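Quick start: what a row looks like.
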Amino acid sequence: MDRKKLFRTLLFPPFWITLILSVFSAVGLIYVFIGGYEQSVPAYVLYAVSAYALTVLVLFFVRTFPGKYRNIKAFVYNNPYGKRYFTDPVFKATVSLYCSLSINIVYSAMNFLLGALQGSFWFVILAFYYAVLSVMRFLLVRYVKRNTVGLNMLSELSRARICAYILLLVNFSLTGGVLMMMYTERGHDYPGIMIYVAAVYAFYITASAIKNIIKYRKYNSPVLSVAKIISLASALVSVLSLEDALLLRFGTENSEQFSRLMIALTGAGISITVVSLSVIFIVKATKEINRMKRS
């Protein structure tokens, strides 16, 4: 066989081979890391196979994504709801609000179940925190379902201010969770490479939440603005959980004081951020409500 043809075949194998290699590598790596076989000979063979699988998978997407992207984009824009989602920021934020509510409810239930099964107060606190976020998002979802966003500013300010008050109060449960992580029960570790996946996810949703807070200010909708503050509060708690997991994974017996310091600083930073955003929003909303009532 021609060398160039062989080289091309190795870099661009059939998709079913790429898929099998990817699944095999993912399952194998999880097994290796969970079982603690990182230094074994089969593990090194698996590392090489995984590197090859990742290479051909990336090349496959680089080769096929541009054409597929154009086809998918055309398909989405031909659908009225798909076109509206990508062209109407208010509609997109409303859909995101519904999705966030569903995710919060599931996540709260999952943490409560883990807390009950493992006897972990940390999971119970997380369950309570996300349950309250679910209540706030439910109030916002109920509002946008019955009202047009940005139309009745007085009503919208009142509903958003209620959520900001709730967010301000629920911050006390987060403070209790931070103290628990520092002196009694630590959080939870992620198995194998899942900690890196969790890290990417936590930083992505945090960056996205910060971007959306800035982006949706120009639409002059208090409901959408407070929804993005709630998203940031949720994302920051994910960062706190990730930090605790990283300290558990990579810390040593002699680093307990350092771990407590880092958790305290991060927890304080999150509390200050959430409280500051909530207070600023409440003050501005109250001034605007009073001005509207006087006029």
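That is the whole record. The two ends are 84 Å apart (CA to CA). The chain has ten helices and no strands.
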